[in-house]
Every structure is written in structure tokens, then in C-alpha cells.
Amino acid sequence: MRVAIAGAGAVGRSIAGELLENGHEVLLIDKAPTAISVERVPQAEWLLADACEITSLDEAALQRCNVVIAATGDDKVNLVVSLLAKTEYGVPRVVARVNNPKNEWLFNESWGVDVAVSTPRLMSALVEEAVSVGDLVRLLRFSHGDANLVELTLPEESALAGTQVGDVEWPEDTSLVTIIRGTRVLTPSREDSLEAGDELLFVAAQAREEQLEDLLSVRREDS
């Protein structure tokens, strides 16, 4: 897979390193000469250019990329890069970094963004995930389909504890994708039973989040 990353700062270089370790082809783009540090990620391609310019993106052969990541520290730049990648070059997957949470509402399909990653929101979500039981925590927003990756730790008193996945009437537009149980990561089947303390990860439409939280957190009636 070929991936272009706009922004060769610490975030961009870190992403590039991870992708290269997984066998992907990576191009780092930055307009600041001081950011071009080939020795830090020598396996990547490097391009000194303004990623907001069509001529630069032509030189980067963006139409050959499977994914573009807009990872600069400037939200305006990330939006422009995302829009150009999607509309001018038809890149299948565009991921954009959100620096200021107040701008998060802009990072959607109208600007060519498939996945928006807000560092402040993600850090907050990880804190909530670590301390919350029975509360739905939004980890990641997908622009297409208005869906989110959400997590909930099943509380001890949940009526669903001990219930098989296939016997639960899940809300529409929700999908249970992973069960984290201790150190194990499970791909759920219909026969798997839910246990108190399970971390459940769903892809869910935003309109269904409250319904999903109510279903998972419902308490057993006292006998």
C-alpha cells in the first residue's frame, strides 16, 4: 500500500515509521527545509514541497496513493490537503489530524475526510476509557456514514452479563467488532458469551449511541 503523509514533523515521522515497519510504501511531504530529515526515516521517500499546491501533489503522484494522511499542525492545511486528495486525485482513504477540537466539525466528507483523528479528544477518551465502567466512550469518528468507534466496559450489574452475543437484540446501525477480555482480543461470534468487565468495541451510528449505552448498562432487577 502506498501512503502519502503531509507533514513531516514528529507526528508524521512517527506514523511513517509504523507504516514502514508494516511493509507499506511511504512518502513524506513538507514545505519546511528544516523538516526534511531523511536520516530519521531513511526508508521513506521525501518531498520538499507545499502539499496545498496542485503542482506539488502532481509531483508526489498522489493518484497512485491508497491513503493520504494530513498530519500537519495546521488545521487549515490539513483540510485543504484532504479536499485536494479526494476531489482532484480520487484517493480512496483520507485521514486528517485535528489540532483544535473547535474545528472538528469541519473534518467531514464535504472536505474529503474519511477519518478525523483529534489528538485532544483521543487523549480525553483514553482517560475516560481507563476510569469509566458502564459509560460509552467515543474513541474515533468516521466521516462516512456518520459512524463512530465507541467502547464500553460491561458493568457487573449489567443484565447482558452471561448472555450470548447472538441472543442480544443490538440496535440498528451498530456492530460489535471486538471483545477485549483481560489480555485476550476476541473476534466475537454468535456463541460467545459476554462477561462483566469485558471491554466492548463497536462501530455505531451516532444516533444509536444512547440506545446502545442503555442496552449495555441496564441493571439486573433485584430478586
TrEMBL record:
One of its GO terms (cellular component) is plasma membrane. PROSITE patterns: RCK_C, RCK_N. This is Trk system potassium uptake protein TrkA. It holds the Pfam family TrkA_C. Residues 137-218 form the RCK C-terminal domain. Keywords: Ion transport, NAD, Potassium, Potassium transport, Transport. It comes from the Bacteria. Residues 1-117 form the RCK N-terminal domain. Transmembrane segments: none annotated. GO terms for molecular function: potassium ion transmembrane transporter activity.
